[in-house]
Amino acid sequence: MKPVKATARNDHLLFVVFAVVVLAMPIWLAPLGAGYPDLMQKFAIYGLFAMGFNILFGLTGYLSFGHAAFLGVGSYTAVWSFKLLGMNPLPAIALAVVTTGVFAWVIGYISLRRTGIYFSILTLAFAQMSYNLAYSVLTPITNGETGLRVLNDDPRILDHMVGRGEADGSLVATLFGVEMNGMPGFYFCAAFLIIGMYISIRIFRSPFGLMLRAIKTNQNRLNYTGVSTRPYALTAFVISGMYAGLAGGLLCVTDPLAGAERMQWTASGEVVLMTILGGAGTLVGPIIGAGLIKYSENIFSAFNEQTLHGIFAFLPDGIEGAVVSVAGLFVGEGWHLTLGLLFMIIVIFLPGGLIEGGKRLVDMTGRGPRGGGGGRAGDAAPQAAE
Questions:
Q1: What was the pLDDT predicted at 250?
Q2: 298 C-beta neighbours (distance < 10 Å), count
Q3: What is the tally of structural domains in the chain?
Q4: Residues 6+ apart with CB under 8 A from 279
Q5: pTM (2 decimals)?
Q6: Is the dihedral of CA 318, 322, 325, 331 positive or negative?
Q7: Which residues face 175 on adjacent strands?
Q8: CATH code, domain carrying 81
Q9: Domain encompassing residue 34
Q10: Segment Disordered: which positions (predicted)?
């Protein structure tokens, strides 16, 4: 067991290293072909999305299949902020987080009356209802299947007050005169990712986080001792939803457009994959999982038959054609097959995710700590909370 001071020191070191790695993404991602702003923005945004989901699923064990609803609500709120107030991203982000928090409280208050698979089904039902409402029923608010975007004739009250009401071309979120696209947009998202990590660490190491882990370990025993677990679970649900709302708002900061497709059940399933792939209940695992999935989506989906022929050109012609035919099933439009195989391998051989795999490799080299070296990032939290 680590003493409190050692755990706090490790947390500070983790946070500093994490911040440096995030800010240096353009440097170390360039050799991997992923050092361009749009993809790095996705890494930061979906990393936040997975980080928030991990606070609910990783700590309490409550598996939500409806978190895409919060992503969509955050997106719509941000775009309406742009339309009514102006293109400043800070009010849009603040409103997205607050609105999503209220929405999450309503859904969580109802869904948390059940546990296990029934809770998961309830959240999935709410997400599908939200998707259908956004797609067809609430078209005056969401603009239906076309999507909601910012127009030149929108009120944008604050922009007109400072003389920025007229704009040539497309409208872009602007902070202190800097447009939030390209590299400035990435660093704006990266700043929120770093802040989100700091909050996540504080939650993991707090008495509140300890209670959430107790709920996951044995909720019935807590109930029998007279402890009401529902307020803690509801708070975790709301915090998790606010993270998702923040991610949805950032999606619109970098591209002022909101559509109902962000609320589909597939988006909810994607964040589950991200969290499990990286390591549920760990601090950085879900972010790694989000990065891996988005990297696969953008890199492997771009492979085509010509690219594969270039890769396997060293093979004899007959063998090359056969290999390209088989490999073509796993890239391009079929990149989900590659992701599915990777997910199966992780679940079967590394149920703790990629973080567990990394720790096993460290232990195999003989450099890891003896005994409890395979524990998760949250395992030392009880000492920090005491």
A1: 96
A2: 17
A3: 1
A4: 285, 286, 288, 289, 352, 353, 354, 355, 356, 376
A5: 0.89
A6: negative
A7: 178
A8: 1.10.3470
A9: 4-273+373-385
A10: 366-386
